[in-house]
Every structure is written in C-alpha cells, then in structure tokens.
Design brief:
This protein is mostly helical and 277 residues long. The protein has helices at 8-22, 24-47, 50-64, 67-82, 86-116, 118-133, 140-147, 151-175, 179-187, 192-225, 234-243, 247-273.
Length: 277
C-alpha cells in the first residue's frame, strides 16, 4: 500500500502562477520604480570621477570611524580601481544600498510592532525562522516570474533574504529595555508613543544598528548570488569567471567583494557604537 505524495510543489507553482497573473500590473509598477531608482543612484555614483568618489568614501570612513579605517579604505578602493572593477563595484554598492533601504523600511515597523504585541511576536517568529533557514538560492525562483531577469529581481530576493535580522534585532532591542525605565515613564504620564520614541527606541538603538549591520552583510552576499538571474556587479564578474574557468578573475572579483564588505561592516559598526574607536 503506497501513500500518495502531497503535491506541495504543484500547489506552490500554481500559487505563484496565480499571483503573477493577477498582480502583474502591481509587479510591473514596482519593477519600473525600482529600476528607475537603480539607474538614478548608479548614474549618480558613476558620474563622479573615481578619485572623487574614493575621496568621499575615505573621508566618510575617517569621520565615522577613525583614520586607520580611512587609510585602509583608500588602499582597498585603490586596489579595486587598479583591477578594473570600479564599475562592477558601484553596481554592487547600488544594489546593496537600495535593498538594505527597502528591507530596513519594512523591518523596523514590523520589529516595533512585534516587540509591543505578544500575539504578533509569537506569529512572526516562526515566519522569520522559515525565512532564515530557507536556502538563499530558493529566493531567486519566485523573483523571476514576478520581475523577470535582472537587477529588480535581485533586489526582491535580497530584501526577503536580508530582512529577518533587522526585524529580530529591533524586537530584541525594544524588549530588552529595562522594566524600571518603562515604569518610570508611565509614572511621569508618558503616552505609548512617547515611551516608544523617547525611551525604548533610543535605548535599543545599538541593538537595532547591529541588526541593520547584519542586513547589509546578508544583502551583499545575496547580491553576489543574484548574478545567476542577471544582476550586474561583482557577482556577475564571479559568475562569468566560473563559466569561463578563469579562477584568477574570480578571485579578483571576490577580493573586491571582501573589501566592500569590510568597509560597510566597519562603518555600520562605528555608527552602532556612536563614537570613534
């Protein structure tokens, strides 16, 4: 006696087909807006000469962190420029910035709501577990029918993949605010919004920034993977090197990814600490 298998894959495929057909107008509008944002930011960064953008980034690293990071950033970016990977680096940075912005805009309100509502917290935690344990490549599958091949699909997949840490850390930060401070705010007659914006969010800001840091790192890793569905940038350089069996080119692009990741990580960590280290 054989137990019939559950046609889960057919159900998921049918659901995706239904969503694609019913909401094609919405997805096309989102795709146009997102592509416009990508083009504008990318053109703005490419309009600056390489030395000019390098100087701006180095000055930002110095101001946010310290002179050591500024010097390291200058050397790393100069190496990327020397390797001829400046334009792919800009394309990768554009995708990471936009994907992180969208993820944070969605994650912060959801994290705040989950911190203030026990019912929502218990509902959303299993969903976040599912999102974080799902293999990254799976997110590329629904992105293609919704938005087609290209950078828009990459941003869609990146947002879904990188959003959970920002939600988790926001919820954690607000829930870890000492109870006595909340009681003191209540004693002074603070409203719910006043407690949130003047007590809970300021005290939880370091934890929230740690979540944003993790979101940026996950976005960078996903943007590289998304080269498989036509995303431009350093990931496409790695993918092209794999297809052509050119390990040297692949390692050059990989080193550029590492330099960009280290710069983003150190800058966001310095913002989280709120002081020069």
């Amino acid at each position: 006696m054989e137990i019939p298998s559950i046609p889960l894959g057919d159900w998921i495929e049918g659901g995706l087909n239904w969503l694609t057909s019913e909401y094609s107008v919405v997805t096309r509008a989102i795709s146009r807006v997102t592509q416009t944002g990508i083009d504008v930011l990318n053109d703005a960064l490419m309009w600056l000469p390489e030395w000019g953008l390098l100087a701006i980034i180095v000055a930002l690293c110095w101001w946010v962190a310290n002179l050591r990071l500024g010097i390291g950033g200058a050397l790393g970016l100069a190496l990327i420029w020397n390797l001829g990977l400046w334009e792919p680096m800009i394309e990768t940075l554009t995708l990471v910035v936009i994907a992180t912005f969208v993820a944070v805009v969605i994650a912060l309100p959801v994290g705040i709501a989950a911190a203030l509502s026990e019912r929502l917290y218990k509902t959303i935690m299993p969903i976040l577990d599912f999102m974080q344990t799902m293999p990254a490549f799976v997110y590329l599958i629904p992105a293609i029918p919704f938005f087609g091949i290209g950078s828009v699909s990459a941003i869609f997949a990146t947002v879904i993949f990188s959003m959970p840490p920002a939600i988790r850390f926001t919820t954690l930060g607000i829930r870890q605010v000492p109870v006595d401070l909340i009681e003191a705010a209540d004693a002074y007659g603070a409203t719910r919004s006043q407690k949130l914006f003047k007590v809970q969010l300021p005290l939880s800001l370091p934890t929230v920034m740690a979540g944003i840091n993790q979101t940026i790192m996950l976005a960078l890793s996903m943007v590289v993977i998304a080269a498989m569905i036509g995303a431009d940038g350093l990931g496409s350089e790695v993918w092209r090197a794999i297809q052509r069996l050119r390990p040297g080119d692949g390692f050059e692009a990989g080193i550029a990814v590492v330099i960009l990741a280290m710069l983003l990580d150190r800058v966001t960590q310095s913002l989280r600490k709120g002081r020069k280290s």
